[in-house]
Design brief:
This protein is an all-alpha fold. The protein has 6 helices and no strands.
């Protein structure tokens, strides 16, 4: 709390609230993603290597989310960005790999998404939503890094 008080002393209230709110939203989105990955890994619905990858992501991201909740930290934000982009890439690969076996005509991501939605495949739709969430997390972290660098 002392860190936020020090920030408040040097900032106008709207700038302070915007920075803290931005940081807290990024931390919250990251923590929710971590909890979802723990839940999925514990459910044993995936291959062992995917569960291990999910738990590794949680081990990297959760401490950063906690640091970010308390105080904006560029190193934590960079780790969150890297992990979110990496997880978006893994989810994209998994989506496209599963699509090749049943939708070889829809090799492009847009075509696969369109055919998955048309076919009513909930797993593909959920995967697209997860990719969007991961990219949103990376975007939130990147914009907060930019905000911290312009302020500093």
């Amino acid at each position: 709390m002392a860190d936020h008080a020090a920030l408040l002393a040097g900032m106008s209230p709207p700038a302070f609230l915007g920075g803290v709110l931005h940081s807290r939203v990024c931390a919250l989105v990251t923590a929710v993603s971590c909890l979802a990955h723990v839940w999925l890994a514990a459910g044993n619905h995936h291959a062992a290597w995917l569960s291990a990858l999910m738990l590794t992501m949680v081990a990297v991201c959760l401490p950063c989310a906690l640091h970010l909740w308390r105080r904006s930290n560029v190193v934590a934000l960079q780790r969150i960005m890297a992990s979110a982009v990496g997880m978006a890439a893994v989810h994209t690969f998994l989506l496209l790999a599963s699509g090749r076996s049943t939708h070889s005509h829809a090799a492009a991501a847009g075509g696969l998404a369109e055919s998955a939605v048309r076919a009513g495949e909930p797993a593909a739709v959920v995967m697209l939503l997860v990719i969007a969430l991961e990219m949103t997390t990376a975007f939130l972290a990147a914009t907060l890094v930019a905000r911290l660098r312009t302020r500093g």
